[in-house]
Amino acid sequence: MTTLKPRLLSLDVFRGATVAAMILVNNPGSWGHIYPPLEHAEWNGCTPTDLIFPFFLYIVGVAIAFAFDSKKEDQAQHSKLILRAFKRGLILFFLGFFLALFPAFDFSTVRIFGVLQRIGIVFFICAVLFIKTSTKTQLRTLLFVLILYWVLMTLVPVPGVGYPNLDKETNLAAWLDRLIITEQHTWKAARTWDPEGILSTLPAIGTGILGMLAGTWLRRKDKTESEKIAWMFSLGFISALLGQIWGLAFPINKSLWTSSYVLYAGGLATMMLALLYWMIDVQGYKRYTKPFVAYGVNAITVFFMSAIIVKVMSRIKIDLDGEQVGLQTWLYKSFFTPYLSDLNASLAWAVTFVLFWLLILWPMYKKNIIIKV
């Protein structure tokens, strides 16, 4: 029989590796010089970078199962648990909103939705689903959400366009974002659609549900470790395969968060968690886990603060060959580009940034300083 600990080390490692990868791909030395695997797909398709965000939402779902499973049995506690989830979701949303505002605080053009906002919404809705429904209902909800989104995106004519389509600016999700949050408050790189917009949050919730189902499975005491791992690998493979097959008709697309993308990324996340669980929690291979755990236990904190630091550095101006540039640009051009090729200099800066935060997170981890959001 399985003896479960209240916290999975493999989950912390998975979370830490994912947020470190987030920081790596979000902070190249130059956006014009990036190795292809560290870039998002132009539209349809999936690069390793496109897996990072769904992996994180999947991890959120797994964590929900471990945080609430033993408490949901007491129905008298449901209101308290839901209120706690609402507060956390709200904090995450407003942390993301603050990032969008900082440092200009221009409310007229601030982006309403974003990464942390989506995490907050998905966390709250998934937490309520987990607390109030059974595993079977959660599975049915997942299937319903994925099919509903597919129907909406591929069969419903887009107002003003006249036909359903999956193009960047004329799909139903883009139309809804422009209608409700307006172009001034969408993603600044496009201003006509938002990759974390309203309608695409629906299948993103499905990614969280997949994580909850995996977490519930890992907590089962009537299954051996071998059974758990074998089923996770098998179902993860099937999910990824189904995502690829569905992708022939409903393309895998991160920006639209298509249903095929949910199955594909969720399947890969399930296999990755199964592998880490087997290596770390079952086999006890923990030698190189601590740096990832240091990132994992303060994942939201480091994501938020790293974004703040980048924005602060852009406001600090330093003279470089007669031109006023931001501190980051000065550091990059002074210590990286003179010694490395453009691609390697850009990657070296990103790796250095990840290691810089590890130097901060490591003593926090050693002193058990965990900033809970």
Automatic annotation (TrEMBL):
**Superkingdom, taxonomy of origin:** Bacteria
Residues covered by the DUF5009 domain: 36-149
Q: Which Pfam family is an annotated match for this chain, by its short name? A: DUF5009
What name goes with this protein?
A: DUF5009 domain-containing protein
Keywords noted in UniProt: Membrane, Transmembrane, Transmembrane helix
Membrane in keyword set? yes
Q: Which residues cross the membrane?
A: 12-31, 51-68, 89-105, 111-131, 143-163, 197-218, 230-249, 261-280, 292-310, 346-365
**InterPro entries under this entry?**
DUF5009
